[in-house]
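Two folds, back to back.
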Amino acid sequence: DVDLIHCRIGKIEGLEILSLRQNLIKQIENLEELGCLNELDLYDNQIKKIENLQALTELEILDISFNILRRMEGLERLTKLRKLFLMNNKICKIENLGHQQQLEMLELGSNRIRVIENIDNLSHLDSLFLGTNKITKLQNLDGLTNLTVLSIQSNRITRIEGLQCLMNLRELYLSHNGIEVIEGLENNRKLTTLDIAANRIKKIENISHLTELQEFWMNDNQIENWGDLDELKNAHSLETVYLERNPLQKDPQYRRKIMLALPTVRQIDATFIRF
């Protein structure tokens, strides 16, 4: 069924958006006549393989998240793709993206990926999401010079490295890993959001040059020295800090001391400051 009642349609012509979310589709098929399709949404079905998309040469947005894909394949003809969502599948390897020169967003969260690879030629990529995989190292990112958002939460990373060429990066999410030291951010001076919550960090350091920071998430670590907050004093636009569940929080003057050390802050943990 295609229901287009009361949509102010003025002309019958090429279908541009097709959404088949949350159904029981097992195979991608019978789309050959939809060459004008711009967006295809197959989120939450039972698809095992990316196939039969070669006729959709105008496709810009493809979402096959929450299916049972094991491989990234069948994308070769989709050279105009701007956004690709393959979250929550069973993908083990990043591959077959060599033709996706226009790709701006790549979502591969909640898969089984162990290595960041085969994406260094995606020079137009703006946002990369790799959360909840099995990645152990930040690597092969040098070619992503236009990247502004990198999310790699809930992996197995122990060091912040390999980000030196990402000078346009604005949001970096590294929570729920095994990081022990804040380092390797010397060239990422445009960062506005830094999330390193739920790691094994004992000291806030090496971020005094991040003067554009607006959000700093550092909860669930091992910070115990109030002097560490001096690293954030150059961030004159800092509005939000998360420091809960660090040893610092045991101090009865916890919130007051943060307010005195960082007077621009408007939110401490999940609570806004009242003036």
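---
second:
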Amino acid sequence: HLHTLGSTATFVFLSPGPTVSRSIVKGNVGQNITVPCFYQVKGPGDITSMCWGRGSCPTSKCYRTIIWTDGWRVTEQYSSRYTLKGNLLKGDVSLTITNAKEADSGMYCCRVEISGWFNDQTSNHEVVIEKARISTASPHTYTSEQTS
């Protein structure tokens, strides 16, 4: 019966940790940019701590943390330009960047600390802040084309 050992030794459930979702958020300098992040809250027991950090999500916590919450309120805030305006108690932990600067561009990590080993919900968000392009064409050129 030795030949059966090969087939029983295949472990299908060894997936490389939870999947990390990604999103890209684009905006212009001076705007308020909201980076979406949500987790599921069915009841008060699901409310949990979370952090936002710069750079891709590390294996635990956040690098260069900009915001921590204990689930109910923001407990640490690196800058007044970073706020959580959503309803934390409903799992809306989206990050709002006020008066965006080009230096705000880059990767952000949203980590929701869900109890248990390696259960944290992580997502990487690429933020692209561009200088608003000033249009050189005057609006009159369009109206004259339409009326002619």
